[in-house]
Amino acid sequence: MRTHFDAQLASLNNELILMGSLCENAIAKAAQALLEHSKDTAFNVYKSDNVVDKKERDIEALCLSLILHQQPIASDLRFISAALKMITDMERIADQASDIAEIVMNLNFAEAGDLKLIEEMSNAAISMVNNCIDAYISRDLKMAQDVLSHDDDVDEYFIKVKTELITRIKNHDQDGQTPLDLLMIAKYLERIGDHACNIAQWVIFAITGNHNTEA
Fold it and tell me: How many structural domains compose the chain?
């Protein structure tokens, strides 16, 4: 019985890694689409969102099956419970990558101007997502805690981007739609950072049994 349970746990771990990889790819490609002015890349990100949605449903079904039929011990139950929480945030990350891609598909690049700050913000958010997934894979408590410490960096980038865009609207006689679109992209990146923090907190819980960020 335990052998079968261990095989299912290994399957859960592999499915979570795959879902994490899909999310990492979605946000990286959405950022690439913006920076390279590629509406084709944006469209590919936008239409792939349903793949992550299906993966979330599959993992949820596996977790519930493990809980209902295998009666896991406390340490195993922590990882299963954390997985149920993590996939919700992963799915939201993919949703927000799709939202960014949808904006890029309709963005007026002629009015977009310098995207350096948004590029740096996207790199910071992508790094948080990569590291929270890696922390889960390697059961690395310090890496998970480090993700939490970088949330302020993404928040600060958002403030800088917002300030720059407000100044751009004030100083230039142009349609305000493009700066607003860019502000929405920055807001989605900020939310992605928040979801990466949520995942990191559940990794900490899975390892320690403590959901406190100071664990």
Answer: 1
